[in-house]
Amino acid sequence: MAKRVYEVWKGRNKFFLGGRLIFGPDAKSLLATFSLIVIPVIIFCIFVGRHLRHEFPSYNAGYAIIVAAIVYTIYVLVLLLLTSARDPGIVPRNLHPPEEDFTYETGGRQTPSVTFPRTKEVMVNGISVRVKYCDTCMLYRSPRCSHCSVCNNCVERFDHHCPWVGQCIGLRNYPFFFLFVSSLMLLCIYVFSMSAYYIKVLMDDKEIGTVWKAMKESPASVVLMTYCFISLWFVGGLTGFHLYLIGSNQTTYENFRYRSDNRYNVYNRGCINNFLEVFCTKIKPSRNKFRDLVQEVQPPTPAAARESATNDAGPDDRRVKVEDDLDIGGDLLKISQRHNFEGIDSDIRSRGNDQ
Predict the structure, then answer these.
(1) Is 280 a catalytic residue?
(2) Could you report the per-residue pLDDT of 93-144, keeping only the tens digit for each?
(3) Which residues are CB-neighbours of 289 under 8 A, at least 6 positions away?
(4) Which phi and psi (to 5°) does residue 336 adopt?
(5) If both were cysteines, with which of 76, 113, 170, 309 could 88 make a disulfide (CB 3.0 to 4.6 Å apart)?
């Protein structure tokens, strides 16, 4: 029975719902992230929001505090799911190395040696940029593409691998990641503010009067304020850092790796255009069809390959196929042997013509 692409996927990703959802190998960390968001909100609704219902002129207006917290938390969780459960921009692997980039050097030897360039130059905004070859995915990475060692995939516009969302952050989920982090910061500010307001309400009570007594009356408010204050240092700092990255059109990977090089940023198009590129550009569809059936390709037999090489028009026009089921070393050996055979065949033909 034919298998689907996600069932034979070579990366370390985890798939759910028949390949409709794709997570990183550390998807279990989502449970911790989910708990760190939901549990404080539940505590807030029970021990703080419930008591603030009667502190507004209209009785129903007090319910808005609880409803706003619940609705906004759901919004944050949806952003978390959109960040962690979608293809971040994985580049499909090649079944064989790009043969057009091989070069052959005879050097007076019977068997030509095969050389393979590890980098090549591409043009980005009129400036030459060097890209590297990925041995695992058997392709030259596009500019800003990098191989994630955690997921074992090449990802377009790779930013970083985030363990808190259990997924790589790349071209297709970076906007959702930023919205998730910034929205989580606002949620912390909201819970902190409402908890502080409840402490003030208790202080206004004549029977309590002091801050210390108000804190003893509502220890949940104190815990929530402390928790949100600590969390704000992380999510607030992360939001500010990514605002800087978006404004300068950098990724986290580029910022940490090239910050000491003082190299010119060829991707910077100006602050406004950089923000428009992230938030106002249509997200590209996934390059992977995880639910498609795998197309099995049978490698040609040695006799068929030999016959194909013999019937070619000439050595300059020939391009030898590389078998899909061989590794890189086997590919190089096979190509070398075939070109050697073609060279001998061409030499015999030329001698026959001379006679």
Answers:
(1) no
(2) 988 887 665 555 555 555 555 566 788 888 887 788 888 999 899 889 999 9
(3) 5
(4) -60, -45
(5) 170
Find the catalytic residue in 134, 162, 188, 228: 162
Q: CA-to-CA distance for 27 and 165, rounded, in angstroms? A: 7
Cα distance between residue 345 and residue 355, in whole Å: 16
Output 51 or 261, whichever has higher pLDDT.
Answer: 51
Higher pLDDT, residue 117 or 329: 117
What does the H/E/C string look like for 216-269? HHCHHHHHHHHHHHHHHHHHHHHHHHHHHHHHHCCCHHHHHHHCCCCCCCCCCC
The kind and range of the H/E element at 280 are: none
Burial 25-56 (b: 16+ CB within 10 A, else e): ebbebbeebeeebeebbebbbebbbebbeeee
Among 72-86, 167-181, 281-295, whose mean pLDDT is lowest?
281-295
pLDDT of residue 298: 54
Q: Tokens 């979608």 correspond to what residue?
A: 86
For 124-174, give the DSSP string.
ETTEEEEEEEETTTTEEPPTT-EEETTTTEEETT--EEETTTTEEE-TTTH
Are the C-beta atoms of residues 176 and 79 closer than 8 Å to each other? yes
* Residue 223 · residue 43 · CB < 8 Å: yes
Query: Could you give the CA distance from residue 256 to residue 268 in angstroms, rounded to a whole number?
Result: 17
pTM: 0.78
Structure-block tokens of residue 157: 């516009």
Measured CA to CA, the distance from residue 355 to residue 348 in angstroms comes to: 11
CA–chain centroid gap for 295, Å, is: 26
Helical H segments across the chain, by residue range: 29-47, 63-84, 174-204, 211-217, 219-248, 252-258, 271-279, 302-310, 328-354
Question: Shortest CA distance to 92 belongs to which of 2, 19, 3, 6?
Answer: 6
Q: Which of 139, 176, 168, 185 is nearest to 252 (CA)?
A: 168
Tokens of 111: 């068997």
